[in-house]
Design goal:
Layout (H helix, E strand, L loop, with lengths): L3 H4 L1 E2 L4 E2 L4 H11 L3 E5 L5 E6 H8 L22 E2 L4 H11 L3 E6 L2 E7 H7 L2 H12 L2
Parallel strand pairs: 2-3, 5-6
Antiparallel strand pairs: 1-7, 3-4, 6-7
Length: 138
């Protein structure tokens, strides 16, 4: 069975919890990505900030992205997948949490990200269709 480690994009870059949202947006632009893991000072994953979070939770609410810290966007426990978890677990986790991106953890260390596009490239069409349907419905 295909594992998260096999289909993930390795080497995910974190944004620090004390960095500003503006820093996160610049890093996203430089890397050409729409989401970044938020890593704490203790080297543990605190959450994920997305381009949509920046627009809706910062700009849309009139907050200053140059003074808002990324930790303010990390809500609750981060949804992750283990590096050796199989594709079925990836599909279950993405579907049940309605998320298009999952940080991949090996122990407590971030080793990559699995995005909806990674799943689409790696799994049979019926499974991808089920995931797309689950993510598209409320």
């Amino acid at each position: 069975m295909t594992t998260a480690r096999e289909i993930m994009t390795p080497g995910a870059q974190c944004v620090g919890e004390d960095e500003t949202v503006l820093d996160a947006a610049r890093t996203m632009t430089d890397l050409g990505v729409g989401a970044l893991p938020i890593c704490g000072n203790d080297d543990r994953l605190k959450g994920v900030v997305t381009d949509r979070d920046i627009v809706v939770k910062v700009l849309g609410r009139g907050k200053d992205p140059a003074s808002t810290r990324t930790r303010e966007l990390a809500q609750g426990k981060a949804v992750t997948i283990g590096a050796d978890d199989d594709a079925e677990e990836i599909l279950r986790t993405m579907s049940s949490h309605k998320t298009r991106r999952l940080p991949v953890i090996d122990g407590h260390r971030l080793v990559g990200m699995v995005a909806q596009a990674d799943v689409a490239r790696s799994l049979p069409n019926p499974k991808v269709g089920e995931l797309l349907q689950a993510l598209s419905t409320d």
